[in-house]
Each structure stands twice: as structure tokens, then as C-alpha cells.
Amino acid sequence: MTSLYLLLWIAGGILLQIAIYLSIGFWRHWQSYQALRDVATEFEMTAHPEAPSELTQTAGATWAGYRSFHVERKELEDAAAQVCSFYLVPEDGKPLAPFLPGQFLTFALDVPSPMGGTQAVIRCYSLSDAPQAKGYRISVKRAAAPVGSQLPPGISSNYFHDHVDVGSQLQVRAPAGHFYLDRSDAPVVLMGGGIGITPLLSMLNWCLTAQPERELWLFYGVRNRAELVMPAQLQALATKHANFHLHLCLSNPQAGEPGADRSEPFHTHHSRVDVALLRRLLPLKPYHFYLCGPTPMLQSLVPALEDWGVPEGRIHFEAFGPASIARKKPVSATLTTNQSDDKRNAVMVNFAKSGKQAAWEPGMGSLLDFAESHGIVVSSGCRAGACGSCQTSIRTGEVAYTQAPDFDPEPGSCLLCVCTPKTAVTLEA
Predict the structure, then answer these.
(1) Are residues 302 and 341 in the same domain?
(2) Whether 157 and 229 share a structural domain
(3) Which of 41-55, 66-80, 158-172, 411-425 comes out lowest in average pLDDT?
(4) Which of 97, 126, 307, 373 is deepest in the core (most CB within 10 A)?
(5) DSSP annotation string for 392-422
């Protein structure tokens, strides 16, 4: 055997070893890839394309100030005749770009005053349907006077029910709000209490249209069946979509009211919406939870979900009425932050008109929450930086915004609902 043949044999042996090594490496990577695919399939975590521009870019739905709309249709939505839907179309007849399901509209109302004339009232109402090209829908519950209180019934809700009819004109700001459904394929759990169902209806209708294969659960809590909003529509959707699981929770059912009926396309529970029910019914999957309802409901459910182990980033909520929902601190924050740190970070807040002064500390919420906790009455509407109702002048000091407001406050003023004190501050409140 010549030297040349020997070299060729050696080179061939080396190449064969390299090929075997690469084949083994490829096989191992292929096995890992298949395992990841199996996990993704098990949890339905598919790759997510970018959201369509018509839903992520809502600039087309935005306009400066207020725009004139008229009521095209008005319909009662519950057996108790306490919830009414208003279908709104713009006076200029121009199409409306899509909003994000879960957002709300802000209304400037001229409400009759008990003293004669009218009074200006700003209120926000959630959109209760999927985006439509030509109009909006809101669903308003008539707010009665609180039992055992001298407070009057809800000014704006009763105005809508009693004075807003087909053909009535309304002044409306563009859709806004930071509570809306995400665009991923992750399974969704919607949890609504009372009239808190309205933004969830928008999410539900949009999701079943745009993402019909997405797993969707709705836990809807009311006192009894007479208070259910749009029950026939919900039952029809549950019948049509096998991936939509409807659960009605009645906390105070009427005498003889049926409980769970397996022949129906939904389930009825004689209980409140709670995490014990979720743990019993939900398979183990990476759900996103969307909650809307009265403050006591959220104060109970949000911490309970966190105790269950749901990551903070998968819990999304919106309360109607004043709300301050305590969130658990991440472990890292717990290790580096203690009560003495909060005391050192305390900031003095002066309320000039009220003559009150108090120390704000991290964790006390927005300046609106802080003011209300000290008995200071401040006008508010959306509580999300969109309507401008809580705009307040700053005499001295600075504030920091927890989120970018949709409403542009006047120079020298701030929106109390979405800001906290940056330095010692004196407010005109």
C-alpha cells in the first residue's frame, strides 16, 4: 500500500467519524424539537403571527375631542328590565375603525338638574360587542339608590334609560382603555360579575369571530336568572361553539330556580364565582384571566388567583366604581423591600381645598385612590386616564404617571386616577 492510499484511508476514516458525530447531534436535536412540539401541542401554544394592523393600530378610530352620534336602536337585555343596550352610529356617517375588545367610550351628557336646567356629567361605558364598521353598542344598567342610604340613584344610568331614545344625539370620545383581550392563542378565562359582563361580551364576541378555535371559558356571576344579561345570545353561542364553555353562577337564586342542567349547552352553579370552582373545572393550561365586576369580587378573586400560582402577567382586571386591588409583591421585591423602605419612600401630599395632609407610600395606589381613602371627594369617570374627569391642578410638586393617559391634561394639572406623587405635592382638591 502506497503512502497516497494510506493517507486516503486515514482521511476517509476521519470524514466517516465526523459524519457519524454530526448525525448523532442532529438526531438528538430532532428529538428535543419533537418533545417541544409535543409540549406546545399539549398546551395549545402555537406560534403567534403579528396582529393585523386593523386591530393593533386604532388611530383610525381616534378623533380629537367629542364626536356626535345618534341612537339607532335601543333594547332591553334582561328579564328584570334593568339593562338596556344602545346602538350608536356617527352623525357624519363615516365608518369606524376597530377598537380593542374590552375598551370603553366616554360620554359628555347634559343631564336634567333637580334645581332646574341641566348639569354636565362625564361618564364612561364599556363597549359590549365586537368591533363593527358602522357603529358601537353599549349596555347600561340602571343604578338604583343604595339601600339604607340617602344617596340618589345613578345620575347617568337613569338618564340613559329615561331620556335617551332612538334618534337622541350623544357626544362621544373615541374608544380608550387599557383593559382588552390579548391577541395570542393562549386559552382564555373570562370572569364577570353583574354589569361587569359588558366588556367581557365584547371580548367574547370578537374572539369567537376572529379566533374561533381558541379555548374560551366564561364564568358569569349574578344573584339570579332575572339579572342575566343577554342569556339567549350566550346560550346560542355556547351551542354553536364547542370550544366556548359557559358557566352561570347564581349567588342568590330564586325559589325553585333550577340548578345545573346537563341538557343545556351551559352549566349553572348555585354559588359565587370563586377560585375553588375554577380549580375544580379548569384543565391545567396556561390561561389568561380577564376579570370585571364590583370591587369586593376583584378583591377576593385577584389575590386568590395569585395564591393559586397564576402569574401576575396573566391576570387582567377592571373594576366598576372605586377600586384598589392589593397585588402580591414579586419574591425579589419582597427580599429587597420592607416596611421601613416604604416609610423612607413616603411622600407628603397636601389637598389644598380640603385642608388635609397625609403621607403617601408605595402600594397605596393612585392619587385618586389615596384621596378617596381620606374622604376627599373627587370627580371621576373612567379611572383609566381617558375621560379627564379627575383632572386636578398642581400647586407645587411633581407627579409620575403609572401609564400613559389617553386624555391630555392641561398644563399645570394632572389626572389623579393614573398618577402618583413623585415629590411632595400640593393638589387643588
Answers:
(1) no
(2) no
(3) 41-55
(4) 126
(5) EEEEES-EEESS--SS-PPTTEEEGGGEEES
- Average pLDDT on 336-356 reads 74
Per-residue cell: 355? 385642608
Q: Are 204 and 190 contacting, i.e. CB atoms less than 8 angstroms apart? A: yes
How far apart, in Å, are the Cα atoms of 42 and each of 39, 281, 390? Answer: 5, 18, 47
Distance CA 122, CA 100 (A): 22
Largest interatomic CA distance in the chain: 117
Q: Indicate the pTM of the whole model.
A: 0.77
If asked whether residues 106 and 206 sit together in one domain, one would say no
CATH of the domain at 161: 2.40.30.10
Q: Amino acid letter at 314?
A: R
Residue range(s) defining the domain that contains residue 74: 61-144+153-176
CATH number, domain containing residue 387: 3.10.20.30
| Secondary structure class of 85 (helix, strand, coil) | strand
Distances (CA, A) of 422 to 42, 165, 207, 291, 324: 46, 46, 40, 30, 20
Asked if 378 contacts 148 with a C-beta cutoff of 8 angstroms, the reply is no
- Indicate whether 324 and 340 sit together in one domain: no
Residues 212 and 279 in one domain: yes
Residues 210 and 169 in one domain: no
Q: Is residue 183 situated within a structural domain?
A: no
Rounded CA gap, 75 and 241, in Å? Answer: 25
Is 355 in the same domain as 414?
A: yes
Helix (H) or strand (E) holding 336: helix 331-336
- Could you report the per-residue pLDDT of 87-138, keeping only the tens digit for each? 999 999 988 878 999 999 999 999 998 788 889 899 999 999 999 989 999 9
In a domain, 4, yes or no: no
Domain count of the fold of the chain: 3
385-400 residue pLDDT tens: 888 889 999 999 999 9
Predicted local confidence at residue 18, as pLDDT: 67
221-249 pLDDT, tens digit each: 999 999 999 999 999 999 999 999 999 99
Contact 408, 419 (CB under 8 A): no
Domain check: are 341 and 311 in the same one?
A: no
